[in-house]
Design a protein that fits this description.
With 234 residues, this protein is an alpha/beta fold. Helix content is 34%, strand content 21%. It is built from 9 helices and 9 strands. A 4-stranded antiparallel beta sheet has the order 7-1-8-9. A 3-stranded parallel beta sheet has the order 4-3-5, sandwiched between helices. Strand 3, helix 3 and strand 4 form a beta-alpha-beta unit. It starts with 5 loop residues before the first helix and ends with a helix.
């Protein structure tokens, strides 16, 4: 049987494991339960009323957090000519074409967090599907990462755009900031994420959509959130 450490137990004692708190209460508590020496990430876990085995109930999308994630992302852009220059001006960290496809395939180079590509480059990078796909990095038109508007795409990631996808069990996980963020910033980021998840509710989803919500620090206990408090402030 797994035994938690003293710090975890002390943090867990600050909340009632059976209570579903309002967003305001949960955010306040989660900042109190972070005990690590580093600036822990605040994560949100959702259980959705969907069956991802059906294609029309797959919830996948992105949201721009108004206060960012607290993390600086390295963005790779596959583009040529004017679009490569546009990506550079927007702050992309790495810009290339077929040369970087080769570097990834032959050298296993993965020193980046997000990938953006112009539509004309998709033929060249299609062979990266097996490498980038499982890592959630493969450019996708539905997520806005296959686009000729590379300036906006790069800027969005630099400002705090996150991507999310429901797993096979109907769960969805996403970061909303750091423990050092103010409560107001965390609440607004939390709401931005939930607004987008609610917006993406499949028409075929039946019954309760937001079934369970929890928020936690990287090393801390989960704090349950009352789904009705999300809907009320939407």
């Amino acid at each position: 049987m797994r035994t938690h450490g003293k710090k975890f137990r002390e943090a867990a004692a600050k909340r009632d494991g059976d209570t579903r708190y309002s967003v305001e209460q949960a955010v306040s508590l989660v900042k109190q339960t972070g005990t690590a020496k580093f600036d822990e990430t605040i994560d949100v876990a959702l259980r959705l009323g969907v069956n991802p085995k059906h294609a029309d109930q797959m919830v996948r999308g992105s949201a721009v957090l108004p206060h960012g994630t607290g993390r600086t992302l390295r963005v790779l852009v596959f583009a040529k000519g004017d679009k490569a220059k546009e990506a550079e001006d927007a702050g992309a960290d790495v810009i290339g074409a077929e040369d970087f496809v080769k570097k990834i395939l032959e050298e296993g180079w993965l020193d980046f967090d997000k990938v953006v590509a112009t539509p004309d480059m998709m033929g060249a990078i299609a062979k990266l599907g097996r490498t980038l796909g499982p890592r959630g990095m493969m450019p996708n038109p539905k997520l806005g990462t296959v686009t000729f508007d590379v300036r906006d795409a790069v800027t969005a990631f630099k400002k705090g755009k996150i991507e999310f996808r429901v797993d096979k069990a109907g769960n969805l996980h996403a970061p909303i900031g750091k423990k050092s963020f103010s409560e107001d910033a965390l609440r607004e980021n939390f709401q931005a994420l939930l607004d987008m998840v609610i917006k993406l509710k499949p028409a075929t989803s039946k019954g309760s959509y937001l079934r369970n919500i929890a928020i936690s620090t990287t090393m801390g206990p989960g704090i349950k959130v009352d789904p009705s408090s999300i809907i009320e402030v939407k």
